[in-house]
C-alpha cells in the first residue's frame, strides 16, 4: 500500500510539473492509472484531495486556476518549485543530522526525516551522512504529552487555545484561555509560555498538568508577543533555582536523586533515611510534593506547612 501511494503521488507530481496549462480533475484521472481504477467518482475525489494535500505538505506548490468556462484546473509551475542551490559542508550536515536525531522519539520525527530527504534532493553531498554518530552520547527530547503537538501548531500559527489545567495546589482542573507563545523543555518537562486572557498576564504552564484536549480558537492574539520569551528562567525561579535560603529534609536512602544533586550537605541517619540541606526558593514545596512519601520536611516550618497543604489537596482530589 505504501509503495502504491508513493507511486501515485509521484505520477501526480510529474503530471502537474510537466504541463504548461492547468489540468482538470478529469484530465488527471485519465492520465494516472491508479485514479482510473478508483471505484467511483467519490472515491477518486477523496483520493485526489488527499494526494494533493500530501504533495503540498511535502513542499510542492500547486496552483488552482479557473478557466473562462468555470472549470478548475491544477498545475505546479517549475519556477515556483525550484529550490536555490544548497551548499552544506560536513560540519553543517552533521549539525542538521544531530538536530533530526533529537526528535526521533517525538512526534516531529517524520518532519525531521522529511526535511533531510528534501536536502538530499536539493544537493546534499552523497558522501555526507547526517545521521552518522558523532559521539558516544546521543540527544533525545522525550515528548509524552498529548498536548504537545496541538500547542506546537498553535504557537506556529498564532492561534489562541483553550485547555483544562490542574495546578499543583488544586484538587480539580480549571479552564484556561491562552495565547501560546513558545514551548520549551526544561529538566525533562515541557512548558508552554503565553498570555493568559482570564488573568491578563503572562503565564507558564507545565504540559503534564494539562488534562483533556487542547481546543483551538479562530480568533487573533490580543496581546503583543515579546521578542524574547524566558520560559526556562521563569520556571527555574519557581523551582527554587534562585534560592537564597536553605531547607532541611529527610529523604529515603536510594531515592530522590534530583534532590541529592542539589543538596549542599548529606548526612546518613540510618534506618533507610538521610538528612539533606537543599537550597530553598519559590516553588520548592511543589517540587518536594512530587517525591511523595520519600520526603519529610524538617524545617523551615512554613515550607513544611506548604508541603502538607499540597499533599492534603492531592489526597482530596
Low-pLDDT residue intervals, each spanning 5 or more residues:
none
Order of helices and strands: HEHHHEEHHHEEEEEHEHEEHEH
Amino-to-carboxy terminus distance:
48 Å
CA radius of gyration:
27 Å
Secondary structure: number of strands:
12
In percent, how helical is the residue content?
Answer: 25-40%
Broad shape: elongated
Q: Please give the order of strands in the largest beta sheet.
A: 7-6-5-4-8
Give the mean pLDDT.
Answer: 80
**How many strands, which pairing sense, and closed or not: the largest β-sheet?**
5 strands, antiparallel
Quaternary state reads single chain
Number of helices: 11
Describe this protein's structure:
The strands form three sheets. Strands 7-6-5-4-8 form a five-stranded antiparallel beta sheet. Strands 10-11-9-12 form a four-stranded antiparallel beta sheet. It has helices at 2-18, 25-31, 33-36, 41-57, 90-102, 109-121, 148-157, 231-238, 257-262, 284-289, 301-316, and strands spanning 23-24, 63-66, 72-75, 161-165, 174-186, 189-196, 201-206, 210-216, 245-252, 265-270, 273-280, 295-299. β2 (63-66) and β3 (72-75) form a beta hairpin. It starts with a helix and ends with a helix. The protein is built from eleven helices and twelve strands. Helix content is 37%, strand content 24%. By secondary structure, it is of the alpha+beta class.
Amino acid at each position: 500500500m505504501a509503495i502504491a501511494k508513493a507511486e501515485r503521488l509521484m505520477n501526480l507530481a510529474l503530471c502537474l510539473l510537466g504541463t504548461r496549462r492547468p489540468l482538470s480533475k478529469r484530465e488527471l484521472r485519465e492520465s494516472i492509472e491508479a485514479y482510473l481504477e478508483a471505484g467511483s467518482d467519490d472515491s477518486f475525489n477523496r483520493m485526489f484531495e488527499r494526494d494533493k494535500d500530501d504533495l503540498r505538505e511535502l513542499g510542492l506548490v500547486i496552483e488552482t486556476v479557473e478557466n473562462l468556462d468555470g472549470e478548475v484546473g491544477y498545475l505546479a509551475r517549475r519556477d515556483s518549485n525550484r529550490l536555490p542551490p544548497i551548499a552544506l559542508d560536513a560540519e553543517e550536515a552533521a549539525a542538521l543530522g544531530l538536530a533530526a536525531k533529537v526528535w526521533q522519539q517525538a512526534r516531529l520525527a517524520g518532519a525531521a526525516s522529511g526535511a533531510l530527504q528534501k536536502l538530499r534532493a536539493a544537493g546534499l553531498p552523497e558522501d555526507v551522512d547526517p545521521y552518522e554518530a558523532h559521539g558516544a552520547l546521543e540527544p533525545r527530547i522525550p515528548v509524552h504529552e498529548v498536548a504537545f503537538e496541538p500547542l506546537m501548531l498553535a504557537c506556529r500559527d498564532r492561534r489562541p487555545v483553550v485547555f483544562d489545567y490542574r495546578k499543583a495546589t488544586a484538587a480539580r482542573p480549571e479552564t484556561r484561555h491562552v495565547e501560546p507563545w513558545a514551548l520549551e523543555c526544561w529538566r525533562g518537562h515541557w512548558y508552554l509560555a503565553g498570555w493568559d486572557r482570564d488573568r491578563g498576564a503572562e503565564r507558564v504552564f507545565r504540559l503534564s498538568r494539562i488534562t483533556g484536549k487542547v481546543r483551538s480558537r479562530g480568533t487573533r492574539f490580543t496581546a503583543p508577543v515579546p521578542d524574547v520569551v524566558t520560559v526556562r528562567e521563569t520556571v527555574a525561579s519557581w523551582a527554587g533555582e534562585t534560592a537564597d535560603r536553605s531547607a532541611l529534609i529527610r529523604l529515603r536512602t536510594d531515592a530522590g536523586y534530583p534532590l541529592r544533586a542539589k543538596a549542599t550537605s548529606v548526612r546518613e541517619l540510618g534506618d533507610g533515611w538521610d538528612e539533606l540541606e537543599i537550597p530553598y526558593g519559590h516553588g520548592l514545596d511543589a517540587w518536594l510534593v512530587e517525591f511523595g512519601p520519600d520526603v519529610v520536611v524538617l524545617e523551615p516550618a512554613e515550607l513544611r506547612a506548604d508541603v502538607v497543604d499540597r499533599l492534603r489537596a492531592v489526597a482530596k482530589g
